[in-house]
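Sample 1 of the test manifest.
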Amino acid sequence: MAEKIPPPRPPGTAIVPRNSGGADSGVPRGVLLASDLAVGAASRATRLALRLGATGWDAGVAVAHLASALPGADSAGRLLNSAARPLVDDGREVRTRARPAAQARTQRLLEAFLPGLVDALDVDTLVRRIDIDQLVRRIDIDALVRRIDIDQLVRRIEIDALVRRIDIDALVRRIEIDQLVRRIEIDDLVQRVDLDAAIDRIDVGRIVERIDVNEVVQRVDVDAVVEETELGTIVARSTSGFASEALDAARSQTAGVDTLVSRAVNRVLRRKEGDVPVGPPLLTGEIGAEDAASAAAERPPPPEAPDGESS
Amino acid sequence: MNSSRRALVHQGHYAGALSRLLAYAADLLIITVVYAAGLALVQFAINAATPWHVELKSGYKLVLVGELIWAAIYFGSSWVVFARSPGMTLLGLKIVRSDGSALDRRHAMIRLLAFPLGFLTLGLGFLGIVFGRTHQAIYDRIASTAVVYDWDAEAAKLRDLATQGARRREVQLQGSPEP
């Protein structure tokens, strides 16, 4: 027999037993009939007693109202009150003493029955029946947030501990730097920079002290400076003259002719160019002239031949 | 590569035959001119200030010896003091020790004493300048000296560059339209 699923009810209004009872409970049918009969009879008797009691109470109240209207009712009432006072006091005392005992018994009763009751509940089915969306809709989030003291909440957070738990490397790896840089408006950024203030903050003296002036000068192409700038013109006007230019040219030309003669002689004497020392070792950085021939094979090639001198 | 830049390559190299010959010729010219001028002055002074009359043509042997002594003084003093003679200065040459170190007085004097061997061997002593690997004459071998190119080629190159640049700018200025 297929289990019939009851219609959904509002959350919190129904307790669903794990088993539906009846034939599936395993109790004999005769016992069930007898117990139902007994419970039904007891229920009827109880309802009848309660109804009779209520009628009696109402009748008692009416009789009391009538009696109070009779002459001498007040005196009789006071007499009755005086007579009933000790009984009332005893009753109150008994009630006061019985309350803790009743609470203890109730507690024991609950402890005995609640675990079984809780076991009988199917929590999963209960949860499935809860309409979370409706529950959330009923929550006033704004009111809830308004009730939160953010400052106090933040004060309770240990920022240091929180930061220590953050894996900065992993965080940085997840950032796409290129995409981030592409989104930066360089022009806007530069326009917002106060260059004058930045320059004012630079210690130029310190920077200059850290510069290796000798290295800088070595990087300067002096030839280009002299040839391409007005400085060259000044140098030319102050140092050049016909005599010096003619002397420089004569020296260079003579040295060129010497080279040609030396090459011709070396060719006649069947000497290899690399075997002939070009100058004293201390001036050319080569090994001794006497060892030049024997070490010719290990020596690097001679300097590049000047233009127009190759034979 | 122009000549000024090419000259940088030669610095410190053994000087060749033509440079040394021209330097010697310049020295010989200076020696002769100065000696002749000096002799003429001395002759004029003696003839004018004394009752004697000097005729140099008759005493040419004495004049020749005097010229040799003057030449020795000329070369010796210039080599010891400057490590080069005036003619070598003109051609941009310098005398160094055979290993390239600076010439000292002792080796300069040895070179001076051995210098006549170049002539006394009927010129064979000079052949080393042309055919030797290190371009050393016989007196260079004896004195352990060598002659190398050594003029201020760097300055010469800068002068040349400056002159060329200045000329090029002048041409550009002449070619540019008037403002």
